[in-house]
Amino acid sequence: MQFGIFTVGDVTPDPTTGRTPTERERIKAMVAIALKAEEVGLDVFATGEHHNPPFVPSSPTTMLGYIAARTEKLILSTSTTLITTNDPVKIAEDFAMLQHLADGRVDLMMGRGNTGPVYPWFGQDIREGINLAIENYNLVHRLWREDVVNWEGKFRTPLQGFTSTPRPLDGVAPFVWHGSIRSPEIAEQAAFYGDGFFHNNIFWPADHTKQMVELYRARYAHYGHGTPEQAIVGLGGQAFMRKNSQDAVREFRPYFDNAPVYGHGPSLEDFTDQTPLTVGSPQQVIEKTLAFREYAGDYQRQLFLMDHAGLPLKTVLEQLDLLGEEVVPVLREEFAKGRPADVPDAPTHASLLAAKNTAAQDKETVA
Prior knowledge:
Keywords: Monooxygenase, Oxidoreductase. This is LLM class flavin-dependent oxidoreductase. It comes from Streptomyces galilaeus. Residues 1-295 form the Luciferase-like domain. The protein is an alpha/beta fold. The protein is 45% helix and 14% strand. The chain has helices at 23-39, 60-69, 88-101, 118-121, 129-145, 184-193, 206-222, 245-257, 268-274, 282-290, 292-296, 313-336, 349-366; strands at residues 2-7, 44-47, 75-78, 81-82, 107-111, 149-151, 159-162, 175-179, 196-199, 233-235, 239-241, 278-280, 301-305. Strand 8, helix 6 and strand 9 (196-199) form a beta-alpha-beta unit. The longest helix has 24 residues, at 313-336.
């Protein structure tokens, strides 16, 4: 099972000091957080994609390419690649390039995003969001698997005899997760291709997440990729920790109360009761995260949001120390207990390449 962190890259004033970091400071902080993730033994760093204030990660592959040069083991991912407003040809090219630079330590999460105005900025209509996601990903999927593509669709100019370059590393496309919190069509899309399904698991109660995951698992089996239990599931989560739970609540409360997304809404206590947010001790984070399996089944990837709402970089790095030293080792051990042998690990470039080679050998043997 993979553990890591994801960031949305918000530039938010620290409510305890009133200071807002500069865009440069926030970008550099995200890099420092990624490097810390590798240092403390996490598996994955994922960045969002946004094109509007107060966010800065408008070019995920630029950031991930820089991080790739400074890390050795960390899997580099996105927590959203905007499949609706990015050109699918450019997605195919950019992530294949990143794949080569990072020696295969790359996957990505396709999503529609949560900012309506981004659609007209890039010449699209938000009312076509689902249709864009379906058509654009179909083209990306083909561009990575076919050397020469002839294609015609509704939302971009046709392609005749087109070859996307560079070709995927070792002839293996980056693994794709499809992220959605509310659209069954996206769970269906992930299942159709045998790709992964990621639920951000931050704002919604457990019963909603369960419904989406179960839909994806059932449709994954329907399309013949394996049993429902073998489907590839990822979950988000959110935590703030201190050794003493009362200290965690006291320190995090002003950040929660003023957070851009849920600030000035439900109380911290209500939100932690009704959603996966945990504010407390490392043991409390362990217990609540282990409970995710009760409604999501045995899953493959757990990412935590740790660096939002104006939290200072120093505090975030302290959180990552606690996550890497006290939380994740226990989660690895506990999640492994009772895990059925036929539940696969999260796909990596190495495992996908091995599967490709095995399939090729089997084909030769039959021939």
